[in-house]
Amino acid sequence: MDWKNLPGSGGGLQDRRGSGGVPGGGLAVGGIGGLVIALIAMFFGIDPSVILGGGQTTQTQTQTQSGAPADTSSDEANEFLDKILGSTNEVWGKVFQQSGRTYTKPTLIRYSGGTTSGCGQATSAVGPFYCPLDNGIYIDTEFFQTMQSRLGGGGDFAYSYVVAHEVGHHVQNELGIADQVERKQRAARTEAEQNSYGVRLELQADCFAGVWGSSIRAQANITDADIQEALQTAQAIGDDNLQRQSRGYVVPDSFTHGTSEQRMRWFKTGYTTGDPNKCDTFNLAYNQL
Ligand SMILES: [Zn+2]
């Protein structure tokens, strides 16, 4: 992947490292902020956070390749994030324009340890997430190291996929899909039904990430190996896989993000079609997702 070919975001990236850190950062989120984050997680998917839960230690090994975007000490990671954000702005700006809408660009906030978001206090333990209240995508790039050391899926395209997935949640927010889903979730009678809407949202965000990937294919020279990286990540962060890792068994009712197979398939759907209209995960029967 030649991410340097991509356009920058023109100021959409905020680097908050070294400010507003939470003492003892890395601990689970607590208090009211934690509650807000948990609710947002339910609706919008703080995806890979599940990995960090399940009673496992949040200690990560550092196996950073020097100069790789995962190297949090490197300023190159800022350039990388800025370019990924810039390319999503371009792709979604065009899609919105084509249907007579205006795309509001999200802000990408890079932090370390902890920071304050419009959705409450965040720590690295929650993983990357999107806050619809301030249009912010929050990411501690330490997470990239976690991907590399514990999820068996590092690489620049894999990291881009994580960002593009969160941007997908922003797109859902912009389109009003997130609001509709939230209403349906509130009206849901069972937890399983509530979760099923979450799964649809998550799979759609994966598909949107695929649409982004498709749009930058030529410009960033995306190869099959890059796609494999993204698929490997999608596979690793499928709920079934995470549950197996943290509990040793799978509980389908508690799925909120979709299985590994579903996540890979919806990413591919977006990538092969390049068409966001093919990402309609809401008009299929649940067992056909
Ligand atoms: Zn998500």
TrEMBL record:
Gly residues bias (residue ranges): 8-20
Keywords: Membrane, Transmembrane, Transmembrane helix
Superkingdom of this protein's organism: Bacteria
Pfam families: Zn_peptidase
Bilayer topology: Single-pass membrane protein
Compartments, record wording: Membrane
Transmembrane segments: 25-46
Transmembrane helix among keywords: yes
Region spans: Disordered: 1-20
InterPro entries found in the cross-reference section: Uncharacterised_pept_Zn_put
Predominant location category: membrane
The keyword Nucleus belongs to this UniProt entry's keyword annotation: no
Protein name: Neutral zinc metallopeptidase
Organism: Deinococcus taklimakanensis
